[in-house]
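Cross-check.
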Amino acid sequence: MPHGVLHGSGVALHQLGARMPRTIVHLHYLVPSIVAAVLVAIAFLLRKKEPLRRLVRITGAVAPVVVPRVLALTTFLAGTILLFSGATAAKAGRLRWLHDFLPLPVIEVSHFFGSLAGAALLVLARGLQRRLDAAYHLTVALLAAGILFSLLKAFDYEEAILLSVMLGALLASRRYFDRTASLVEERFTPGWIAAILLVVMGSIVLGLVSFGAPAVRGELFWDFSVHGQAPRFLRATVGVVAMLTIVAAARLLRPARPRRHLPTPEELARLEPIVAASRSASAHLVFLGDKSILLNDAGTGFVMYGVAGQSCVALGDPVAPPEDVAELVRRFAELCDRHARWPVFYKVGREQLYLYLDLGFSIVKLGEEARVPLTTFSLDGPERRNLRRVWRKAVQDGCTFEVVAPAGVAALLPELAAISDAWLAAKKAREKRFSLGYFHPDYVRRYPVALVRREGRIVAFANVWPSGCSEELEVDLMRFSDDAPPGIMRYLLTELMLWGKREGYRWFNLGMAPLSGLPTPAMRTIWNQLGKAIYGHGERFYNFQGIRDFKQWFYPVWEPKYLASPGGALRPIILANIASLIAGGLEGVVRK
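Predicted model, tokenized:
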């Protein structure tokens, strides 16, 4: 060995030996201090168990929200690092050393796919923020690949170490990524799109600055050499842009979402005992068959819901015994969470509001439902004189009332269908859905039908929902012919209430008056101010006041109904989704 080498090595060893005692002394004091601090902290936490429990509770509640967002940010940062690394010059010494061990194609391929992995991580960060399991698995694979590519393209071990830390944090957080929604269907907000484009454009600018615009020329695209880093950057940039273009085109041309599962007749038949035992007559809306069903494990209750946009909208409180309602509310919220949708409960009562508040829902009042107590209902008394006058006028015009049992409805269907079609044409309306029934032979023949005849011919009808335990009656479809006498619906409802009273029912449900009963000006929120404005100035589009006035003829008890859902800026979108469900699509929202 040459003397110079020995001399250089001796100097290096001497310098190292001179530094080692000082380093050992520092470690001698530092390590025990760190260990002592950790032991003191552990002893304190063990003695103070309540702060420890509180910390665990807070962490358990906050972690599922915070951790996915933090890891989404680190994944986006990892993608940025890989892209910027591919746009900057590697150290020449490392490239020469690497080329001694690896053939040139390995270096070229590693650089190209390292940049592609970086661009893919930018896209997947959005899926991590939404806690999608597919995004989690792909991100783990791409981070592992990114670590390998960082070492193979330029032996960038600093970059590999940083990506390894990110990968370790992601692997330790697997339990937070449990949503099974489709990654292809995931929506990107304008902010996410802008962030991705800024990073990609930043890497392009960084490459032009690093290598110089003259070095990044099209004719050098196919130039392959160990130190040909500018052509390598050019090829990677073309690949990244091509990949993002393909992703964008695939999202624009993706097929429509598959239809959700609707209950079969056999599945609906299994719900009949639950509906028959329910004290809510509106539980019969499940037999429209247009809503999906979440059934509890015991088979004693269910949630009926529709899907519009990002909203899963449950109609009313769960149909279940009181002791099973909380479990169904929680399970529905978890179902929506797994599929990255917004859980919404539409038209819920005040009795169960605490359940929705406990789960973090925002509550707003939708309106009031009119329920007439049948035990005290009659046509006697001064407050009923207008109703009594309308009833007498209909009787004088030759109107008669009857309730036809379900077995006899099939024979009347052609006549009822003709009245229904004429009524829709006269109103220039279309059939509604979801929270309202529509005329379908299978649906109509399920229930008793209240008829008004004049000279033996049907001039008005309404189908009747009877609830369990003789709690309440409710009508759904109420339709009449063009030649029906004035006040025919008041007459029909009056006779039906008297019939329900004789049959032993306690309440008659007239349905909801939207936006009625909102708080006074001193107690208004923004939602209440908007609702009051619509209620007062929206009569040309919807007869809000007229609906309440019609129901008030029967002197009902007004009971509030609420919307339980995510609040804030999402509420207008949720209300639009509910409107599209009821109207049967977006077209129906702008038409009657």
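The first helix runs from residue 3 to 47. Residues 305 and 406 are 27 Å apart (CA to CA). Passed to J.P. for a second look.
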